[in-house]
Amino acid sequence: MNYILNIYWKIYALKNLIFNKITFKRKDIIYTDFPKISGIILITGQGRLELGTQVKFNSSRRSNPIGGDTKMIIDLGVTGNLKIGNYTGISNATIIAHDNVVIGENVKIGGSVKIYDTDFHSLQPTLRKKSETDIPNTKSIHIKNNTFIGAHSIILKGVTIGENSIIGAGSVITKSIPDNEIWGGNPAKFIKKIELLHT
């Protein structure tokens, strides 16, 4: 029985790898080495995606049961830009990069995190009535090196999260966070400074 299961999971992993490689080729994704992807990643839009070395994505319930979502979703819009740095790991997140999202190196992004650099719709109700006038505001997001974003958090447009900072699970980030701080809540508030170990 174990032998049959092992064969099944090997075939499953190979199928996912082929599907992901086809997606990357079709979308002209730029990468140093092909990322480790557990599951199948969904990439939509015509924008640009650039990945550093040894990037990891979890994109299934089996790969991260706390994520809640069944896959990792990236939407690049028409002219969006998403850059993900070396050694960064992301689980079952949704990233909407219609403007510009930069994620640094050694970043850990927990299950079901949402990153939105757009409002999706105009703030004016009269403009939302027609698709041709329903133009949303967009603003860049920058998540700096060594940050840790807790599961189910939401990061909104125009935010910078400083180096080494930690976002508590389930937080809503509406404003920028300095380096070396822990924030949490809805909306997120300062909790405490991080005292870095020097080795």
Automatic annotation (TrEMBL):
A Pfam family this chain is assigned to: Hexapep
UniProt superkingdom: Bacteria
Ranges that cross the membrane: none
Enzyme class per UniProt: transferase
Keyword annotations of the record: Acyltransferase, Repeat, Transferase
Gene Ontology MF terms: acyltransferase activity
Gene3D superfamilies: Hexapeptide repeat proteins
Keyword presence, Repeat: yes
InterPro entries: Hexapep, Hexapep_transf_CS, Hexapeptide_acetyltransf, Trimer_LpxA-like_sf
SUPFAM superfamilies linked to this entry: Trimeric LpxA-like enzymes (SSF51161)
Assigned EC number: 2.3.1.-
Family affiliation: Belongs to the transferase hexapeptide repeat family.
Protein name as annotated: Acyltransferase
Species of provenance: Maribacter confluentis
